Amino acid sequence: MDSAFQWNTSYSVKVEAMDAQHKRLFEIIRELYTAMRAGHGKQVVGEVLHRLIEYTVQHFAAEEKLMEKNGYQLLAAHRIEHKTLTDKVVAFKKDFEAGSATVTLEVMTFLQDWLTHHIQDVDQKYGAFLNSKGVH
C-alpha cells in the first residue's frame, strides 16, 4: 500500500494550482499512513489528521472558488462530494479524539480510494473545463 499514496501524472487535472494542492494532499495522507504504520502515539497521528482536515477544507474552498469564477456547471454536485468527504473525516476525527476509533488500514484504504476516485473521475472533468477557459 506504500505506493498507493504517491501522486503521479495520472492524477493531473492540468491546472497547476490544483495539481500542487493535490500533491500536498497525497503528502499528508502518506504522512498519516507512515505515522500509523510506525505505531506513533495518538497525539502524533491526531496532529497529522488535523492538518489533513484543515488542508482538505482549504483545498476544497480553492477548487470551488475557481469553478465558480469560471461558471462550472457541475459545481453543485462537486460541492456535495466535498461536503460528504469533509463530514466523514470530521466525524472520524471526533471519534478518534474520543478514543472510539483508530487510524487503521481500512481508514487509509477509504482515504486512498476516495482521493483517487475523486481526482481521476470528478476533478478531471473540471480540469478539462477550466483548460477550455484558458486556466492551466
What can you tell me about this protein's structure?
This protein is mainly α and 136 residues long. 75% of the residues lie in helices and 0% in strands. It has a single domain (16-131), classed as Up-down Bundle (Four Helix Bundle (Hemerythrin (Met), subunit A)). The chain has 4 helices and no strands. Helix 1 packs antiparallel against helix 2. The longest helix is centred in the middle third of the chain and has 28 residues, at 42-69. The radius of gyration is 15 Å and the shape is elongated. It starts with 15 loop residues before the first helix and ends with a helix. 16% of the residues are buried.
Q: How is the CATH topology named?
A: Four Helix Bundle (Hemerythrin (Met), subunit A)
**What is the global morphology?**
elongated
Which CATH-level-2 architecture? Up-down Bundle
Number of domains: 1
Cα radius of gyration in angstroms: 15 Å
CATH homologous superfamily heading: Hemerythrin-like
Strand tally, please?
0
Question: Main beta sheet: strand number and arrangement?
Answer: none
Short descriptors:
136 residues; mainly alpha; Four Helix Bundle (Hemerythrin (Met), subunit A); 0% strand; elongated
Question: What's the structural blueprint in terms of helices and strands?
Answer:
Layout: H1 16-37, H2 42-69, H3 75-98, H4 105-132
Helix pairs in contact: 1-2, 1-4, 2-3
